[in-house]
Amino acid sequence: MSNPTAAMITIGDEILSGRTQDTNMNFLAKELTARGIGLRETRVVPDVVEEIIAAVNHLRKRYTYVFTSGGIGPTHDDITADCVAAAFGVNIDVREDARAILAQNYANPEVDLNESRLRMARIPDGATLIENSVSKAPGFSLENVHVMAGVPSVFKSMVGVLLPTLRQGRAVLSLTVRAGMPEGELAGPLRELNEAWPSVDIGSYPFNRNGSFGADVVFRGDSQAELDQAAAALREYLGDRELPID
Amino acid sequence: MSNPTAAMITIGDEILSGRTQDTNMNFLAKELTARGIGLRETRVVPDVVEEIIAAVNHLRKRYTYVFTSGGIGPTHDDITADCVAAAFGVNIDVREDARAILAQNYANPEVDLNESRLRMARIPDGATLIENSVSKAPGFSLENVHVMAGVPSVFKSMVGVLLPTLRQGRAVLSLTVRAGMPEGELAGPLRELNEAWPSVDIGSYPFNRNGSFGADVVFRGDSQAELDQAAAALREYLGDRELPID
């Protein structure tokens, strides 16, 4: 069985305006990679109903899993849950199990669980809840779409609960060699390695440190032996121009 | 004339694997916002020909500008320029002006400007070059698609050259008030402000610091007077629960 695939949708004008540097995508990407779930595409979309619905519907049909981040809080600009319900064509309303979880947060839920906070108990029909150990208000999964909060601490908490429940893939092995020479000199040798080990995926990621160009060469594949062989061949080529990885 | 709109495409398996935390999107977002160019959507796509072509063709028809980051180096996995040419259905080959720019980088261009490096002089027909003050190899603009490098220092250099040449919009004014209370209590008052100043866009961005929840309330719009009025109303509501912005 081939590895599961995934896409991520980040909902948030604050990311698109540059006000906030997103970090949830990188966190999720690492977690998925470690579990052999291939993140194939990510999108950031604005707080606009039609855009969110279109992205959810396009991506949920293409990938095993879709993960969303953001827009499930209590304020008027939190529209993700309603959009996901609309994308699936199902009803959404305050659900008793979600309301009960929210109520645990408050000494006086009759007063504190106001109309705005109750918005966070609005769950599409047929969804299952994703626990939030930080601030209670749950995320939810509807079929293959997993809806989580944008606040990084809450997002991480939800990912930690959710991922072990999903189908895992075979983790892709990887091995990195750092080259202290510009990509322009490396490119020829890398092309030869690429031809010699066709089942090893070889990526070259250039960097510029203190004015010197170098590149991290990442070997990825299913066979540790092949990664080791390809890396050894590169190391032989580099000689003392291999740099330590810090 | 309404403000220009924009989308960004980041090309890179290393972002999707979680190996690299992207920062180019946030940099570009801030620069565009400051110039009144509305970034409406961003995507990260893998190093896969069909995915890059599909994203370029979808987004270039929807937005005033499309910016790409990544995949224009000398190695076998650098396929962005060819994909952009294919998206437009135009030819791509080594171009003399780009080759001449690259040659400036080398003491001995006859030798150093090897086959791999010459890949960086491959420019689609009809494109104009984007200067790279860091490492010479240029980006390019083809119609409304602006193709830039992924290395952050080079990306920044290219954005700095490119943006002043594009149509600017009217910068959206913004004003932020930090509330030391959870969004669940703020949501009602924010909804009232939203109704009282319909032309002011009010976003609430929650945070969790040292276990305390708060929210940055961002007012955006064209009228400084209205932003000031809406913010003053929120400040009156918050009283001593307004927090300083660090």
Question: Could you describe the 3D structure shown?
Answer:
- Two copies of one chain form a homodimer.
- Chain A is α/β, with parallel strands linked by helices and 246 residues long.
- Chain A folds into two domains: 5-165, MoaB/Mog-like domain (Molybdenum Cofactor Biosythetic Enzyme, Chain A), CATH 3.40.980; 173-243, Alpha-Beta Plaits (2-Layer Sandwich), CATH 3.30.70.600.
- The first copy, chain A, is 38% helix and 26% strand.
- Chain A has a six-stranded mixed β-sheet with strand order 2-1-3-8-7-6, with helices on both faces. A four-stranded antiparallel β-sheet of chain A has the order 10-11-9-12, covered by helices on one side.
- In chain A, a hairpin with a 2-residue loop joins strand 10 (201-209) and strand 11.
- The radius of gyration of chain A is 22 Å and the shape is elongated.
- The two termini of chain A are 36 Å apart.
- The mean pLDDT of chain A is 94.
- The interface between A and B is large, with 69 and 69 residues.
